[in-house]
Amino acid sequence: MAKVVEMLYEGKLEPMRLTGKSNAEMRRMENLIERHLNKLKDVLDDETKETFDKYAECMNEYVFLISEQAFCDGFCMGARILSEAVSGAEQLL
After folding, report:
1. Are 5 and 75 in contact (CB under 8 A)?
2. Which candidate, 77, 83, 92, 75, places its Cα nearest to that of 13?
3. HEC states along the chain?
4. Residue 26 in contact with residue 20, Cβ under 8 Å?
5. Could you give the C-alpha distances from 54 to 42, 44, 48, 87, in angstroms and in order?
6. What is the mean pLDDT of the chain?
């Protein structure tokens, strides 16, 4: 089961293919991030750029890990809700 959740998160299964693509707020934030990143890189010297690039790489990995965990937690919560709904339906019969 955990492998299926990982595959869903990694986009190897179709549900992740279009995540956020139609979300205007996410697109706006991505544009802002890119614009500010480019401005920042324009004013940094080479040594500072190297340090910043390492920091950004760590932050990207951290965000990925948080997102993956949130996805897995949400999936498990959904499975629990479904389980309770099925159990509740059986009690009504």
Report:
1. yes
2. 75
3. CHHHHHHHHCCCCHHHCCCCCCCHHHHHHHHHHHHHHHHHHHHCCHHHHHHHHHHHHHHHHHHHHHHHHHHHHHHHHHHHHHHHHHHHHHHHC
4. yes
5. 17, 14, 10, 49
6. 84
First-to-last CA distance in the chain?
29
What does the alpha-carbon distance between residue 28 and residue 54 come to, in Å, rounded to a whole number? 25
pLDDT in the model for residue 16? 45
Q: Which two tokens stand for residue 18?
A: 């279009």
How many Å apart are CA 10 and CA 32, to the nearest integer?
A: 25
At which residue do the structure tokens 């009504």 appear?
92
Q: Could you tell me the two tokens for 33?
A: 């991030």
- pTM for this one? 0.63
| pLDDT of the residue at 72 | 87
